[in-house]
Amino acid sequence: MKIRLTSVHVDDQDKALRFYTDVLGFLKKADVRNGPYRWLTVASPEEPDGAELQLALADDPAARAYQEAMFRQGKPAIMVHSDDVKAEYERIKTLGGEFTMPPTEVMRGVTIAQFGDTCGNLVQINTLARG
After folding, report:
1. Taking the domains of the chain in order of start, what are their residue ranges?
2. d(CA 41, CA 38)
3. Which one, of 79, 82, 77, lies nearest residue 128 by Cα?
């Protein structure tokens, strides 16, 4: 079994696509419209055929309530991995990303940083030292 798709709710799909591609550097994988519905996904350029992240419109009251509650509590909607959180922090800041937590070692070998995705979510970058 493999994870192929996961979703994050966003308040504006166009804005989310710009952020996830222009700032984070992900690749647009799918952009299909059917009336008012839009299926929009991105993927990592490091694994373009790997798992996709659906940028799902938060147009359902339950989805919106969950998204807002998670943000208020400071809980990330998604977590991504980087071999160098500090370098990603600097790169994303340069591109206009706004961090709520700078790179912080939370336990030995684990460094995280958190930032808003401009669409109602917190994103966390992790670096995990192994070995």
Report:
1. 5-128
2. 10
3. 82
